[in-house]
Specification:
Blueprint: E1 2-3, E2 16-19, E3 25-28, H1 36-51, H2 58-68, H3 74-77, E4 79-82, E5 99-102, H4 110-121, H5 123-135, E6 143-144, H6 155-164, E7 168-171, H7 178-191, H8 197-205, E8 211-214, H9 218-233, H10 235-244
Parallel strand pairs: 6-7
Antiparallel strand pairs: 1-3, 2-3, 4-5, 7-8
Helix pairs in contact: 2-4, 6-9
């Protein structure tokens, strides 16, 4: 979601136009699918750990598996993953099928597998932003990320920064979700007299909040761009899979 300095001049089909609670215009690249398939893979590894008599706490398992994704690069891994549990309008898919494919002659590694799933989690949103940038002059100064995946420090944030080609910041409350946001709005109604919503958030809620910002390197941006190009080019695999399976 990008808070705009001015409304978009034209219709961009892949972008939803919404607003902040204070009424500022927002361009939203909305994806129906993000980390659900990655979570399913983590569950498989959790079942394996249980089966060999060495259960692993879920948070620790995410740290280990996403930590493995920090190694290597997707050009060498030769793996492509799709995270579509459902259809996704942003890439014109009426139905989805989670799918992982790899090139013959490449070694299937934990690093490549997890890095592919992490790249896939943000691919549809990255594609939406790519279309937005191509259609409109919309500079993106920085992004703030939230969601449970960011409980694992640095690695998901770095991939997201590469996907969006912009600095991405993660705060201490990044793992909190929509219910927390609604509670903040309720708090503003009860205790924000004399302040704008922005002032209330800046001075009452986020003042002193520790924020970590990652700026992607040119190499990371280029690696993700190549992955996204393959991700979009191979979408016919998804359509065929939905027709026959």
């Amino acid at each position: 979601m990008i808070v705009l300095e001015r409304p978009l001049r034209s219709l961009v089909e892949q972008i939803d136009l919404v607003a902040t609670p204070a009424g500022a215009p927002v361009a939203m690249a909305h994806s129906n699918n993000c980390t659900s398939d990655l979570n399913a893979w983590v569950e498989v590894f959790s079942q394996f750990a249980d089966a060999i008599g060495h259960p692993v706490q879920r948070g620790r398992l995410f740290d280990v598996l996403l930590g493995a994704a920090a190694a290597g690069n997707m050009d060498d891994a030769g793996v492509l993953s799709y995270n579509f549990l459902s259809g996704d309008a942003i890439v014109s898919l009426p139905e989805g099928r989670p799918l992982t494919v790899r090139r013959p002659g490449t070694s299937l590694t934990l690093a490549g597998l997890m890095r592919s799933h992490l790249f896939a989690a943000f691919a549809s949103m990255a594609y939406g932003l790519q279309i937005l940038k191509q259609s409109e002059d919309v500079p993106i100064d920085s992004m703030f990320a939230h969601g449970g995946i960011f409980k694992t420090p640095e690695i998901p944030q770095r991939v997201l920064a590469a996907a969006f080609n912009t600095p991405v910041s993660v705060g201490q409350a990044a793992a909190e979700g929509g219910a927390w946001g609604m509670a903040l709005l309720a708090g503003f109604l009860l205790g924000g007299a004399g302040m704008t919503l922005e002032e209330y958030l800046d001075h009452r809620i986020f003042a002193g909040l520790e924020v970590h910002t990652v700026t992607p390197s040119a190499e990371e941006v280029a690696e993700y761009a190549r992955y996204l190009e393959r991700f979009i080019a191979a979408l016919p695999l998804q359509r065929t899979a939905a027709e026959v399976f």
